[in-house]
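Retry 2 of 3 after timeout on previous attempt. Resubmitting structure tokens to design endpoint.
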């Protein structure tokens, strides 16, 4: 295709802005659905993978009341604040159970209103020496263990490294901001157990009680890693039978529920993309056939002045490809404007882990979407180009008069 042919095709598109705009909008609709839907599905899958990596345990022990007092799963998926407690001896009892390789405690505290935040935040205390779930995540941003009154904050907490935040009037220093996970963990604040004990005491003074009947030494959950080769369900049952007033929950069951929801969303998005693809192809095909009929006399004149059938066919294909390119860029741009600034709203609406893919994958997906739009537009013009090749110049001119 020479520059002369390209220039002629471009002039034809500019000469009829209404027709060009209509074809571009049709392909833009296709690109919007393909790019937007693919980004949503990729974000959900990234969020699920992040959730699996962050939980990092086979089983989680929580007080039996936690199932009714607060949705334990929602704390991780949606950042719902909550606090529930059991005797700290549950950790030692868990380690006594056959098949348990290691166990680590966590203590939860739902703050009131911290200076750093406009909403309630979830404070999570960990034991750096025992923890095997949160500590590796914190280590990516902090090369040392959390010190007393040090806190690491999730990426959605409005506090920068070096700032002092107040939680129940206790001054805590932000020493790390953590990478995004696409889950409720992004709104949490993490500290060591000594800091958590100080915050619990301060909360008690504010009337927020964490006392339980058996004593003052409390934790909220125990994360359990099962030994290789042991049956996780069997260990789960032993834990439920060995520790009173505690419920053992397999993390896989939590993730399976999320996976099922994600699969449902993915199927819906896939059906939408396929439907839009088929609809756009049919409408574009019809549009090009009508355009060829409208331009029959124009093409007949070009034939009479020496243009071959192949030349006219290539011109139609080039015009359709240019429309597809314009529409693809418009669709991808509009999808980006709708998705990226409102990622948090989408996460809240879906109530599932939602983590945007990295820039490299987004650019690759955008390029693939634009290529698809160009291909669909070009394919839809093939039949129209074939009809063009069957037009007799003399007949077309007589019909045009």
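Retry 2 succeeded. Sequence:
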């Amino acid at each position: 295709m020479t520059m002369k042919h390209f220039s002629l095709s471009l002039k034809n598109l500019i000469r009829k802005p209404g027709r060009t705009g209509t074809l571009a909008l049709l392909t833009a609709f296709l690109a919007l659905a393909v790019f937007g839907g693919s980004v949503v599905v990729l974000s959900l899958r990234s969020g699920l993978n992040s959730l699996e990596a962050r939980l990092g345990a086979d089983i989680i022990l929580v007080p039996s009341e936690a199932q009714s007092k607060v949705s334990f799963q929602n704390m991780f998926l949606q950042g719902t604040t909550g606090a529930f407690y059991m005797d700290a001896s549950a950790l030692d009892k868990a380690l006594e159970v056959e098949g348990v390789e290691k166990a680590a405690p966590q203590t939860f505290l739902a703050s009131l209103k911290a200076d750093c935040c406009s909403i309630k935040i979830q404070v999570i205390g960990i034991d750096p020496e025992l923890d095997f779930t949160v500590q590796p995540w914190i280590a990516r941003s902090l090369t040392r263990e959390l010190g007393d009154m040090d806190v690491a904050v999730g990426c959605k907490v409005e506090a920068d490294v070096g700032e002092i935040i107040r939680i129940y009037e206790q001054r805590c220093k932000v020493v790390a901001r953590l990478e995004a996970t696409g889950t409720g963990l992004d709104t949490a604040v993490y500290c060591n157990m000594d800091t958590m004990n100080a915050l619990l005491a301060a909360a008690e003074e504010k009337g927020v009680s964490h006392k339980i009947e058996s004593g003052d030494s409390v934790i909220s959950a125990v994360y359990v890693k099962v030994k290789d080769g042991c049956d996780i369900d069997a260990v789960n049952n032993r834990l439920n039978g060995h520790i009173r007033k505690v419920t053992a929950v397999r993390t896989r069951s939590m993730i399976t529920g999320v996976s099922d929801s994600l699969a449902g969303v993915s199927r819906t998005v896939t059906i939408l993309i396929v439907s839009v693809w088929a609809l756009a192809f049919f409408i574009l095909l019809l549009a090009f056939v009508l355009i060829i009929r409208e331009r029959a006399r124009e093409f007949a004149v070009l034939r009479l002045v020496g243009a071959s059938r192949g030349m006219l066919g290539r011109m139609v294909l080039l015009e359709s490809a240019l429309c597809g390119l314009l529409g693809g860029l418009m669709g991808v741009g509009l999808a980006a404007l709708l998705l990226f600034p409102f990622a948090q709203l989408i996460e809240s609406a879906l109530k599932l882990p939602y983590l945007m893919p990295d820039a490299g994958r987004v650019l690759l997906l955008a390029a693939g979407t634009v290529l698809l739009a160009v291909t669909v537009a070009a394919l839809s013009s093939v039949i129209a180009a074939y009809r063009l090749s069957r037009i007799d110049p003399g007949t077309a001119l007589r019909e045009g008069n």
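Attempt log closed. The chain has a mean pLDDT of 78.
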